[in-house]
């Protein structure tokens, strides 16, 4: 069953915008069926599922504070059409909470031992390879020619998530053939870049750093495979043509460099020089490469709405620091607090004014929506998990058996994931997609289980 979690999580297309929250997507139903199947076939596993008092108190405080602010925000807004609604808003809060428990407990009953953890990681890598061959490579071709437009458009219509009210992104059948940028199945290119950086690259980088092969369970085997995946990811991120993609590339390089040994760092420096020279040559010789680097790196423009929306979200938080303004209610406040100097552009008046101001920063959305009553307990929870993970790593690095090396690799991947999320959340991406909860709770389940077995501080 662990082999199904990541493939299911990739099905992010919203099949109905009229349904509230996550119940408009397929994974939540499939995950519910998987959990029910586990309950029927292995009911003894569910006797081990406990909810701590602190989690219950935190969840209750989150739910009550959100309901209060949703009712308040709905009363004062003059743009109710941009909110999630007085009935849908509370339902979305309930669904968000229920989904967190669903994914966590599903991971807890599925990832029950080391063998299951390895199966999950192998599934993640195989899914990425298949996704790369069937979806990403054809989309890369589509950025340069029309040769594979038919296939890309077919997959786009079948599986591609879309922004509501942004037909201009998908008018040719797919974002990739309309914008000539790689987006996978995500709403836009930057969302794919975030998914690659947070979900897939940390697993790959940890394998390279520790020279560990997830398929054989041994050291120094198939390292070429992980290097191919890393370089392929960089190529995909380049042709996504988004500043988020270039940030992911830079973060991956920096993380891998500083996490590696001194001898590896010297080799990476030499490889970096070669790569930089090759990039300069391509920049000079290929007008297409030159245009991408000019538009998205060297001469980045069109960031007024992103900057203005981010500032507006944090100003919203400063005005409502304790409880936030409610999940799905930030649009009204973004219009209220956005700096006027950032709105003099066509996208603001032709799109945002008509359909609502989308959240332009994940951190801004979290702070503005949920407030300190949710953020502080969440950060404390993460702090304790990171502390436990560090204690576990100190224990395992002293061991030489394959199981210990596997856990060191998984823990490294956990740290890389947190770094990627912390940086990329300055910008916006679809962080509510199931795949992010699945990968996060995978690490949490591993940390909880192993620390419990070893009696290491949690």
Short recap of the structure:
The protein has 458 residues and is mostly helical. 69% of the residues lie in helices and 1% in strands. The protein has helices at residues 5-9, 27-41, 53-76, 88-110, 114-142, 149-159, 175-179, 189-210, 223-239, 243-259, 262-285, 287-298, 304-319, 330-337, 346-355, 362-370, 372-396, 402-424, 434-454, and strands at residues 212-213, 218-219.
Keywords summarizing the entry:
458 residues; two-stranded antiparallel sheet; mainly alpha
What does this protein look like?
The protein is 69% helix and 1% strand. With 458 residues, it is mostly helical. Strand 1 (212-213) and strand 2 (218-219) form a beta hairpin. It is globular and about 65 Å long. The model has no long low-confidence stretch (mean pLDDT 92).
Shape: globular
Class by SSE composition: mainly alpha
Number of helices: 19
The quaternary structure here is single chain
Helical residue percent band: 55-70%
Whole-Å distance between the termini? 28 Å
What's the main sheet like?
2 strands, antiparallel
**Runs with pLDDT <50, length 5+?**
none
Supply Rg.
Answer: 22 Å
Please state roughly what percent of the residues sit in beta strands, choosing from under 5%, 5-15%, 15-25%, 25-35%, 35-45% or over 45%. Answer: under 5%
Q: What is the mean pLDDT?
A: 92
State the order of secondary-structure elements, H for helix, E for strand. HHHHHHHHEEHHHHHHHHHHH
Strand order of the largest sheet: 1-2
Tally of DSSP β-strands: 2
Topology record:
Blueprint lengths: L4 H5 L17 H15 L11 H24 L11 H23 L3 H29 L6 H11 L15 H5 L9 H22 L1 E2 L4 E2 L3 H17 L3 H17 L2 H24 L1 H12 L5 H16 L10 H8 L8 H10 L6 H9 L1 H25 L5 H23 L9 H21 L4
Antiparallel strand pairs: 1-2
Helix pairs in contact: 2-4, 3-4, 4-19, 5-6, 8-9, 8-10, 8-18, 9-10, 11-12, 13-14, 13-16, 17-18, 17-19
């Amino acid at each position: 069953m662990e082999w199904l979690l990541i493939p299911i999580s990739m099905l992010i297309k919203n099949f109905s915008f009229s349904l509230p929250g996550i119940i408009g997507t397929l994974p939540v139903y499939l995950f519910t069926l998987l959990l029910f199947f586990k309950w029927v076939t292995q009911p003894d596993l569910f006797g081990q599922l406990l909810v701590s008092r602190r989690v219950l108190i935190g969840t209750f405080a989150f739910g009550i504070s959100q309901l209060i602010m949703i009712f308040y925000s709905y009363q004062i807004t003059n743009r109710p059409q941009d909110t999630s609604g007085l009935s849908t808003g509370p339902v979305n809060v309930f669904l968000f909470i229920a989904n967190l428990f669903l994914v966590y407990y599903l991971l807890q009953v599925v990832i029950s031992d080391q063998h299951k953890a390895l199966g999950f990681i192998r599934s993640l890598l195989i899914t990425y390879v298949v996704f790369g061959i069937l979806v990403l490579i054809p989309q890369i071709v589509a950025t340069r020619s029309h040769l594979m437009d038919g296939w890309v458009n077919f997959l786009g219509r079948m599986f591609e998530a879309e922004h509501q009210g942004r037909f201009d992104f998908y008018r040719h059948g797919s974002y990739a053939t309309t914008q000539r940028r790689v987006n996978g199945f995500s709403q836009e290119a930057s969302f794919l870049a975030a998914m690659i950086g947070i979900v897939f690259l940390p697993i790959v980088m940890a394998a390279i750093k520790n020279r560990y092969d997830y398929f054989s369970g041994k050291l120094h085997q198939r390292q070429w495979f992980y290097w191919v995946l890393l370089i392929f990811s960089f190529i995909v991120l380049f042709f996504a043509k988004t500043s988020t993609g270039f940030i992911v590339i830079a973060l991956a390089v920096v993380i891998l460099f500083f996490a590696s040994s001194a001898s590896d760092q010297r080799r990476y420096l030499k490889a970096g020089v070669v790569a930089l020279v090759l990039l300069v040559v391509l920049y000079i010789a290929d007008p297409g490469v030159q245009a991408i680097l000019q538009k998205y790196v060297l001469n980045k423009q069109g960031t007024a709405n992103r900057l203005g929306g981010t500032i507006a979200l944090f100003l919203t938080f400063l005005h409502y620091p304790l409880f936030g303004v409610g999940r799905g209610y930030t649009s009204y406040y973004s219009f209220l607090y956005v700096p006027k100097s950032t709105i003099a552009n066509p996208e603001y008046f032709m799109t945002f004014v008509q359909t609502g101001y989308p959240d332009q920063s994940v951190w801004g959305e979290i702070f503005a929506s949920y407030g300190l009553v949710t953020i502080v307990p969440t950060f404390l929870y993460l702090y304790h998990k990171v502390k436990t993970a560090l204690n576990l790593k100190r224990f395992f690095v002293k061991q030489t058996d394959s199981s210990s090396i596997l856990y060191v690799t998984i823990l490294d991947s956990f740290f890389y994931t947190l770094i990627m999320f912390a940086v990329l959340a300055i910008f916006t991406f679809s962080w509510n997609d199931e795949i992010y909860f699945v990968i996060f709770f995978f690490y949490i389940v591993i940390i909880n289980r192993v620390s419990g077995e070893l009696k290491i501080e949690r």
